[in-house]
Design a protein that fits this description.
The complex is a heterotrimer.
Chain A: H1 8-29, H2 33-58, H3 62-88, H4 101-123, H5 133-150, H6 154-176, H7 181-209
Helix pairs in contact in A: 1-2, 1-5, 2-3, 2-6, 3-7, 4-5, 5-6
Chain B: H1 2-32, H2 42-52, E1 55-58, H3 63-82, H4 98-118, H5 122-153, H6 158-167, H7 174-190, H8 209-212, H9 218-243, H10 254-281, H11 290-312
Chain C: H1 2-18, H2 27-55, E1 59-67, E2 70-76, H3 78-101, H4 103-106, H5 113-131, H6 135-153, H7 160-191, H8 196-201, H9 206-224, H10 233-236, H11 242-268, H12 273-295, H13 300-327, H14 331-366, H15 377-380, H16 382-395, H17 402-415, H18 423-454, H19 462-465, H20 472-490, H21 492-506, H22 534-552, E3 561-564, H23 582-585, H24 587-592, E4 598-604, E5 614-620, H25 622-642, H26 650-669
Antiparallel strand pairs in C: 1-2, 4-5
Chain lengths: 224, 314, 670
Amino acid sequence: MNYAQLPLAEQLILTLAAMILFTSFLLLAQTRIVSLIHTFAWQGVLLFLTTCLMAQSSGRYHLYISAGLTLALKVFFIPWQLRRLVIRLNIRRDIENVGGSSMIMIAGGALVIFSYYVALPIRELSELATRNTIAISLAVILLGMLMLITRRKAVSQVVGFMSMENGLFFAAVVSTYGMPMVVELGIAFDVLVAVILFGIFFFQIKAGIGSLDVDHLNRLHEVD
Amino acid sequence: MNGWILAIAQTILLLLCAPLMTGWVRWVKCKLQSRQGAPPWQPYRDLFKLFKKEVVLAESASPIFRVAPYIVFSATVLAGSIVPMVAIGLPTSAIADVIVLVGFFALGRFFLALAGMDVGTAFGGMGSSREMTIASLAEPAMLMGIFTMAMTVHSTNLASMTRYLLEQPLQLYPSFVFSAMGLLLVAVAETGRIPIDNPATHLELTMVHEAMILEYTGRHLALMEWGAMLKLMIYGILLGDLFLPWGIADNLAPVALLIGLVSVFLKLFLLGISLAIMETGLAKMRFFRTPQYLGLAFILCLLGMLSHVILEIN
Amino acid sequence: MALNFVYLAIITALASALLPILFFRSIVATKYISFVLLGISGLSGALGGGMALLGKVDISAELPIGLPWLPCHLHLDPLSGFFLFLVSLIGLVAAIYGPAYVREYQQGPQPLLPLTLFTGLFVAGMDMVMLADDAFSFMIAWELMSVSSYFLVAYQHQNETNRSSAFIYLLMAQIGGLFILLGYGVLAGFSGAFDFASMQAVELSPAWSSLAFVLALIGFGMKAGIVPLHVWLPQAHPVAPSHVSALMSGVMLKVAIYGFIRFVYDLLGNVYWQWGVIVLSIGCVSAILGVLYALMQHDLKRLLAYHSVENIGIIYMGLGLSMIFAGTNHPQLAALGLIAALYHCLNHALFKSLLFLSAGAILQQSHEHDLEKMGGLIKRMPVTAFCFLIGCISISALPPFNGFVSEWLTFQAALQGTILTNHILTALIPIAAAVLALTGALAAACFVKVYGVCFLGLPRSQNCAEATETAFGPQLSQILLAVLCLLFGIFPTWTVSQIDGIAQILLPTGMPTATAHGWLWLTPVSSDVASYGAPMVFLGIGVAWLLVWLWLHPRRKNTKIRTAPAWDCGFGSLNGRMQYTATSFTMPIRRIFRPVWSIEESYQQPEQQSPGGRYQLKVADWAWLKIYQPIGRLLLATARRAALIQGGNIRIYLVYSFFTLLFLLWVVSL
């Protein structure tokens, strides 16, 4: 099927998918913590729009509920909580020095090509017009993982983890019209609880070793 | 024959309207900054004044210094003659494709940088060094953006690229969206506007383009300034006509040409306003932050290419 | 007919080497006899090669010299003709340049005779490589070429660094030759005979074919100068006399490309696309690293040598694209890639030789080889400056000169990558094109630096303030090359139609659509896809320039030109030390691409009350530090261990003999 023959709504979904990938790249390069949280919120907005469009073009109206859940949690609640956490931990104006950011970007590009290569046989199984986005969602997951690896501050790593979950949700929406509602709600509550727990843990870590730099956790090893 | 006459007329129109574009951007900036500002046709007055003035050459200037304005101006005029401004089907568009267009700008920039180094002062050297560095980082981004579009259109001919979107019903290509954003960033860098370079600065240490033409006076300076204005107009037309081609004339009928003329002026009008808003809202970046800016442009164009390969072909 | 011209070329080259030995007492006779004969060799070789290419000849011959069962096979076809044309043309130009240039060696400590002897042998060797049609004569001619160029590189052997550079060069040439020999060995093992015709006929399994390919890639790559096998290039090329550097950089590297193309396209025949990916990536890495290393050099000839690495990278990129298309069954596009690579060979030979000859002229007249000591030479050496400018514009790939055409063709070949069904390749090829764009832009930056620092501005040393223009010979040779650079830029369609003949014999088809619209338009795939009207571009720039000048000319009566001191912020007394230096010009790039080099920067604070301080910058090649020095240390350590066998004690040697005798007796008894 030629790209030009797809209806406008599907083209818009594909464009939004590409923009979600772009926000993943932006997350890799952000140095300010507050901008990181805002970019993550924007990724949530794009995800919300995509889910709504999928719901409308495919007629599966339960996706609207998923979209609403995404909006409530990923665009408003979680960023709000993270922002509050950051202010209370007094790291609001911190800037994280991402060493070798050009190499990280190149690695990100390579990951996108790699996830395309991996997703090629999976593509054949789906009949949706949006099946090409499976590669994009896999890339978002892998970029989230890359963020977890390359960042030193704990809050950045939490955002990376969240974006991985975004990628998973996106993969579910575009390849199989969303997950069963029970699974959906379960995952959403798990993520919610995780954020609250992260908040508690961060206070403890900061009180214990005085900083949220995960490299300083090295002090917790047996042999010196 | 008709086509050639029209092509020459279009080039002359481009030449004559380029100062108006620069003047328009300056005027909108002034209004946004709550200043009175000079009227939009002030650049015409500046050029007239410069052409009448005496030329003062530095003692250490060489023949390259005197020849460079002519070469820069000629290369830019030739670039302007192949860009589809009012109509697409002109014969001049077969002379060169978009990669040759990039080559023309590179030729102009080469001689501009040589002219900067010619007099033997530190300012010119600094301007040349910075300009060539920015150019070398902008080229891969620009090429990637052009390639992305060429991969969809299967051509690098400017007429074919413009005609492609025109002939289809309204489409939304993610690759085009990303290329547009990336090429917009690259265009700002290549034409030397804020946040890369401040065209209105008087502080030598903040100059890039102005530092290279610091020693020029009289008609040489007029040619250099006019060339820069032409470059801005050409980039504006390229962005407008490649990504929003609706309105451009596909044949040589007078009505179509008139519509084409009105539409291109409308696009430049709007582009000028958005450029002025961007220049007023942003501050000029420190020079060593431009690699990050151009890296962002490259990532955008790269994502455009990847989304073309992943999303748009089957 | 064409073959006779080539025979004449080889014979006169050998004569130019050997005949002056008879006249060794008279330096003038030596010089003129050798250079005149070299010029004749160049002229007839160019004629022969040109006729072979244009006439699409295919002549074979057999000479009775050689081994008893392996006479010397010779073969002249358009591919050999093209490269013969290159070699001989640059040989001719070098011969015109030579007499005035070697004047400075006439009083020198070393005699002139070795220079003329080995130059002649070098050119003869290169010509013979092109003609060779069996592995044996190929290797003999190849070794003749390598060894005679070793002596040329070591010509000024009084200097310690020259000797070590020559040694590295010889070592790597020999290792490369060994790999090539092994590659031929694999083919000969399957075909049973050493001549190319039987090697062409045999079919190899993919594994053996790939092994032969890898051996040829490493062997020919070492001579061509791909990264990381390039370390000998920036050491050897600056050290040789300038017309020899022009020959080495301009044509010897192309002989390696010829060997590679002959081996892969002709002898192996069946090209796999995976090979193309390897060649493309090697090309990308060589191009970008070559230009980045070149940017940091401030010795003029070393900088030009690194640029040769970059251009070889670009040629390999074209070859890689061609192989990818050939391996995925798109022969016409493979022809496009091959044509782009061959055109770039031609262009590089022309503009690199021009740049080296001009650099030699500067060296001879100003006795400076460091960019940081030059400046303002445009006023002292106007002809050299003009020709060098043409060379700079050509190498920076700017229209309307020749460098632009081959880069444009390479871009067009890369763009056709969308036709591939393997989408991963479709994603990777534009990235390679972006690397090519980055390379081109960085090359332009480098040559703005070179031209600006060397010719423009104020002189930075007394030598440069007093330099004078060269003699007529060097001027003529430079002007000739500059005119050719312009001509091959303005008439690309004719050139492409001639090079197409090579593609037609190596690949099933050529690229007929490229020249389908007449001599004015170059349309690689079709006129809708892309077209380039080079003569019109040249005309357009000229017309625009003329019109503007005519419009402004009458005003000159009213607005005279007045000279005044340059703007100096009111401080006065500008001197040459206040300008940008070559190192400072490239500082932003050094900062941005920092991990590419191994940089040591040091700044010593001045003592109190005295101005300035001491700033030192050392930029080194990672390949040398990380690959070659460790290998060298490992070899030396192993050699030291092995040297323990030589104990020096005679009883130990008797023990060795005794045990060998016991072992042999035991073996015999089995």
